[in-house]
Amino acid sequence: MIDPMSFSLSALVAFGLSAAIGIERELHSQPAGLRTHVILGVGSCLASSLSIAFSHDFSSPQFQSDPARIVAQVVSGVGFLGAGAIMRFGVNVKGITTASSLWTTAIIGIACGAGYYQSAALATAFVLFALGILSKFVRKTFKAKRVRELKVKLADRPGIITDIRTILESKNVHIISIGTHIKDKSKLELDMIIQIPHDLNLDSLINVLHAIDNEEMSMSISEKE
């Protein structure tokens, strides 16, 4: 049997710690915010408490109960919830951090349900540090990648793709993917996803590509979100 007073304390701690993470995600307009984290944290707390109570109330020497069974299902089930927070925008994937915070919130709720409040609070502090201070450090130290879609139309000739690839690589432009389409057996259309260095101006890139001897060349560069 679950003691109401004991569970109230566990649920309250789980609520507060989950809310702290949820508020941070809410401030950054993430798909899973305050309500999702709180519900997940409190629900995981209840699952942990039930698992312990079941093991105590319904186990016997003949039929041993494993208190980790319910908890294990919660941990694996949260993976599907986290997948819903991950979204794809062109070649970029967003929401992985939020999915990770959801998974960790579930573990924090489980710890609260088992009475490990100090460990849960310490884990919450680390998560908030990673989402806040560490996130700012990463943004300043490691600049975000500039990913663009480059479309080129030009007259086909032997070695033209190799020439374009060589020019891009000489400017430290990384080609993520490239698609080709031959039109009218003489015109070539290239659709490339490229990653551009921060010190390379788009106008400079276009001018370099226009240096290729091809009178029918036309191109466009658009941002991939």
> What distance separates the N and C termini?
52 Å
Helix/strand/pairing category: alpha+beta
How do the helices and strands follow one another from N- to C-terminus? HHHEEHHHEHEEHE
**Assembly context of the chains:** single chain
Q: Which strands sit side by side, in order, in the main sheet?
A: 4-5-3-6
Biggest sheet descriptor: 4 strands, antiparallel
The best one-word shape is elongated
Quote the beta fraction.
15-25%
Overall pLDDT confidence: 81
Low-confidence stretches: none
Counting H and I runs of at least 4 residues, what is the number of helices? 8
User: Percent helix among the residues?
Assistant: 55-70%
Characterize the structure shown.
This protein has 225 residues and is of the alpha+beta class. Helices cover 57% and strands 19% of the residues. It contains eight helices and six strands, in the order αααββαααβαββαβ. It has helices at residues 4-27, 34-58, 68-85, 96-113, 117-131, 133-141, 160-170, 202-210, and strands spanning 87-89, 92-94, 146-155, 174-183, 187-196, 218-223. The strands form two sheets. A four-stranded antiparallel beta sheet has the order 4-5-3-6, with helices on one face. β1 and β2 (92-94) form a beta hairpin. It starts with a helix and ends with a strand.
